[in-house]
Amino acid sequence: MSEVSCTPNVGRPRAFDMNTALEKALEVFWRKGYDGTSLSDLTEAMGINKPSLYAAFGNKEQLFLKAIELYESRPCSFFLPALEKPTAYQVAEHMLYGAALNMADQAHPQGCVVVQGALSCSEAAATVKEALLNRRVEGEQKLRARFEQAKLDGDLPASADAETLARYLGTVLQGMAIQANNGATSEQLRQVAEMTLQAFPR
Amino acid sequence: MSEVSCTPNVGRPRAFDMNTALEKALEVFWRKGYDGTSLSDLTEAMGINKPSLYAAFGNKEQLFLKAIELYESRPCSFFLPALEKPTAYQVAEHMLYGAALNMADQAHPQGCVVVQGALSCSEAAATVKEALLNRRVEGEQKLRARFEQAKLDGDLPASADAETLARYLGTVLQGMAIQANNGATSEQLRQVAEMTLQAFPR
DNA sequence: AGGGTTATTTACCGTCTAGTACAAATTTAT
DNA sequence: ATAAATTTGTACTAGACGGTAAATAACCCT
């Protein structure tokens, strides 16, 4: 049988932890964007040399994509948990308040790497730009599907437009990412969340 | 008396129009961001060589800042005109509908260069990043001042929170820039504008 | 102890980057 | 005509970029 472990038991063991190195890479990409991040930035932050980076993660592009995967699977991620709230209103509520808390959190760079990692960028970043764009669009599609379900469940009126509700919420969430970059605090974003919810049917 | 014209009447005349060249530069920066734009990208789009660019605009950073000035003074700019509408609600209305039309306009890159020109970027872009951040914050301050005035005018209730209203509007406007990058149409953004206005006191 | 395997280090590659020196070209003023 | 002023095109610089070759080091298994 073939062994599928990612840490083989032969050869010299890796001197660094891949996950913490990936966290460091994520932080740099988050702060500087894909184009603005150099390999020197990465190796310095990750505490490894270039050949180690390439052996472990492929290249800059693949490293970025893996960092984004990590980002979305982190325990402090709020998007997927919010989707599971029992009513559409509670989904919106948890998503907005979660974003308010998370995006201005000083424990990491402000905003959202999926929004600001490769928004306007060089041709060299085309692949990662598209990957991020897809994530944003898919997030909104998940919101929409959740609101369609809410209409079936009866906690949204049958007249509600799930697609527009999802896009409205997506717009505010993405706008909050910019606000956090502008220096807005969690409390200020919470107030925006509150206003946003006033337009939301309950 | 000293002549202050920018086109001196001695020496070889400039073979290109500075304003149209600046428009071309703006378009590239808008599409690729500051870090993602190379001097080759610029000279190619502007149809001039590097020494001409440096002689006319200083360097990459100064060229970017001049392109942003041009951007904000363009006739299709909607921000300042909307501020002059007679009531707070009409200000919000014109700003949101103007943004919906403008940001998804296929006649130029999608979104807003003030939002996406240098959001996450290298240290080399620190100056332009800060310049854009200041413009975003100042825009919101202008909105806030306009809403304070509206409270005095009586077209906003005295209980209204001008700062939060301005931040809410700013958040949606900046979110619309991301939405336009996501491929949202003007019609879809118009629907978001409509929802946004439902939370706005009138 | 030795062979196989993998990671690490150092040094390097070609290409692209922002920015410039310089000479030729084109204008106005005398 | 000629001098002064300015732009233009060509060619160049020094350094940073993403990425890699090759030798050495550290581990497991027999």
Helical fraction of chain A: 55-70%
How many alpha or pi helices of chain A? 10
CA-atom Rg of chain A in angstroms: 19 Å
Contiguous runs where pLDDT drops below 50 for at least 5 residues of chain A: 1-5
Average pLDDT of chain A works out at 95
Describe what is shown at a glance.
With 202 residues, chain A is mainly alpha-helical. The first copy, chain A, contains ten helices and no strands. Chain A is elongated, with a radius of gyration of 19 Å.
Walkthrough of the structure:
Chains A, B: Keywords: DNA-binding, Transcription, Transcription regulation. Chains A, B: Pfam families: TetR_C_13 (PF16925), TetR_N (PF00440). Chains A, B: This is TetR/AcrR family transcriptional regulator. With 202 residues, chain A is mainly alpha-helical. Helix content of chain A is 67%, strand content 0%. Chain A is built from ten helices and no strands. In chain A, helix 8 crosses helix 9. Chain A is elongated, with a radius of gyration of 19 Å. At the A-B interface, helix 1, helix 7, helix 8, helix 9 and helix 10 of A face helix 1, helix 7, helix 8, helix 9 and helix 10 of B. Chain A binds a DNA duplex (30 and 30 nucleotides) through helix 3.
